[in-house]
Records
---
Amino acid sequence: MALKNYQTALLNLLIELDRVCSEVGVQYCIVDRLAWREKKGFKGFKGAEGEATVAMLRADYERAKPALEALENREIEETEIDGFPIARFVNSHSTYINMLSPFRFEKPGIAVTIKILEPAGRKVVYAYGKTSRSLSKSLFFPARRASFNDAKLCFPPDMLKLFGKLFKQPSILFRRYPGTFETERFEVICDLEVPYANYMALKGAHELASEMKFVGRKEYYRIVDENKKLEVEKNRAFEARTLTARRVQIWQQLYPIEDELVAASERGDEEFLREKLSDYVELVKRFRKFDYGFYVDPVLERVAKPLVVEALGQKGYAEYEASICPEYRVGMAQILREAGVEHPLL
């Protein structure tokens, strides 16, 4: 996957941080989302990430900080997130504001977040969101080098073990770890040619980047959730419109071979029935999702019943039967005749 321009800038910051750490003899490791994906076998950015996070012991951070700040167009911003200390290694010649993030920074440029691991006896404090644990240093260091895009960078010895210790639910992390896949819309103000100081000097820039611009975000998500519920009902209405068309389609497909289907049912030719009735069974399953009973013909219903029971289960089949409109049970051929339709199969 080709990197987006801000991802290239972010990768360059990671490479710079790695070089400085090697030169001054300090340890770091990439953590959180990017490390989790590396553990899963994805060697780089995936989706729209505009952030990268590393962990560093407090003593190592204090040694690396002067060397990082000495680089051209690079600054350090120290702050807290959820009460835990972090530093940001910022490209001051860039502007980067994530419009969906609740965090607002004094130096809103492309940056690598540094989680500062505070000592807790022989352990260190590590936090993800509002969850924190005192963990062994061995979960972070010595780090291992692994490929990340075109670079070799440092990662924890075992990311699964690290997050298992943090969340105490390692068996479900692949399914539930926040941020494993980028699912949210990604809205940013990004310019790699305009220093953030210049951008923030523009009229209205501080207001745009302030928390007050995002007080309606909760309401926005509430509306999104309501729209998702309406989407389900919209799909249900759409399926209702296609129900009759699908009934006629399957009837035209199977009515000419009804005698063959009955004979196959009587002699127990399951292979023939599975082949010929596969579309019928799939449509029964499809319309059950919307509480519609897909019914075509009494003969077809009888010969297909074992396959439908297999697909839906006994309880599901009972619900399916209860959902069939009584007027449909006479069969499509009779419905067409009574409607005066001159169909070539009749």
---
Amino acid sequence: MKKAISLLIVFLSLSINAQDVQKLYDRRDFIQISNLDIENWEPDNFSVPFIKANTYNAMARCEESNKEIEFLLKTNEAKENPYLMTELLRLQADNYTKMFQYKQAADSYKKILDNDGNLLGETAVLYQDIFRRYDILSTVEPLQVNIPHNTIIQTKPGIKGLPQVQVRTPKDTVSLVFDTGAALSAVTKSVAKRLGIKILADSLIAGGTTANADFMSIGIADTLYLGDILYKNVVFGIFEDEKMTFPEHGFVLNGTLGLPEIKALSSIKIHKDSILEVSVNEEKYKSNMMFSGTQQIIIQVNDSLLFCLDTGAAWSSLSVNYYAKNKEYIDKTGEFTTKVVNGMGGNKEFSGYKLKDFPVKINTSATIQPEMITFIQPISVIWYEYDGTLGQDIISKYDYMLLDFRNMYFSLENINHSN
């Protein structure tokens, strides 16, 4: 798929270098592409709208992305290339998912299965499961959030220092990990019962962070409060209690409040002193953040690296993708090691190399990590194509981090350096 699409992009009639755009596209670096005055590119029959569709999708401009896709689906290039048609429909479905338009997402996945299901190979079962998930949700209204005023929410350090927030329904109140690395909010079955979450279906495939296939139920909380902020129609993945129990480490999780609910807050500051500040941010910033196709937050690091932001991760790491690009240097300078990775799918030991004094620069904020592990095999089915993960070991060195979903901007700041 990527090779076939790459051949089309090379022939862009742009004032900028098409080969540079090609390299950025191949790296999935839509942050840098979005900052190349993409809105004013001269349109052509396919390549420009194709890049725009992918870039707008990553930068949370989903309606604009779908307008480009509507055009692309009618082109001969798409009609004559079933792999390309599948990719466009998958991108369209992802836009609908990010806008919480579940029926439309299900329709797009159904077109993939009906028209070109024979091309999916081993991934067919995943597409069928994703279609089933959104078909089940097709009668559910989109997520809504009401922020009545600038809001301060007290968080508390939870397991291994991970931030937890209290959420409540009319039935009960529980603490959930505030987890930007969770593509879906999730709770245990016992917590779902306490909160009155209505279970819609069982036996759906869920991908744990240890790359082990697992299964979950899916349910809806009609109302959910985070402080004075009211959510309606919150989708939860629901797991057996033992999947969030880690006796070897002595802790149990109720669940997580994930990215769909976090990004709906528009602009938030997560303070080191256990304060979560939600406000309407009117400032303009140059984008340095994007979404992956699996709704992970991706941050631009060291100007050219792409890290998954994971506030639910105790430590940062480099991926097998980074290792592959720097293998010779890492093999020579790194120290071989193993590390156990915990996740909802259980835990598993992975091999890698420890690198000394690794720099992590985001905007003007720079951190030197005394040690950073780079894995030599995928630890996740959703993060392998990026360069690493940004976790609490770096985040906690700053007074607060800003997540601005309106500008797609991220920063780590200290109070005495802020404006």
---
Amino acid sequence: MADPMYDQSEAHHYVPVEVYNVDPTIHSTAAYTEVNLCIRLSGNKGNDVTLTVMGTDGSYYSVTTTRVSGGPNIGCLPAIKVDMTPSTKYQLDIAYDPTGDSGANPEWIFEGTFPDGKIKELRHTFNSNDGPMLWTIGNKEFKALTIGSPLTFEALASDPGSDDLAFAWIWSDFTPYDIHIFAHPGVFYTFAASDMFDLLPYMEQKFIFADNSIRTPEYDPIRALDSVNHQFAEGQMPYFLYVTLIGTMT
């Protein structure tokens, strides 16, 4: 309380504060496909073939098939998740051991079944008279088998505020953008496809809150993992096609 023995005065001091919104952050991206790899072996009994798949990301798979009588013998690996980014390279080794056969020249077929049901084959003929042999399929030849198959793209992003978070995938193959919106708060999710970036659905009218007078946001920061599938036409693949991801607030 003011002392009545003294004159009263009142003063104000204004400190202008400018608050900037913070852009969202894309933490990680991934691109992959899944494939079922098999080896098919014909020829005389006693031939063994081992398929080994090794990735620079530490992945390792192996399956061995032994030729017996009857139709061709087939050995398959479980579905393999193939990283399509340049950071992971693969090498496939096919080791042939003719021990125990009677001199046949078996035909060996490597085949892969991709998510759209397409089967891609690589053929090779081993001559048992030459003894054990090794056939290697390099990274470029292996990944070329995925041309025209569906790919899965993933991205993890966050925003420190309470904004809605949008992922805009731009494919550079003249197909519409894929736009996924994660609305805050909660687990709301909206999908849109558009050729124009300004056609993002306007969602703020659905999320109007009272003024927040405390220092921390009314809701926690938003974080979302987005996933989208895209299939490039097989005839486009000899050219470089750039996939662009824009993380934005709506």
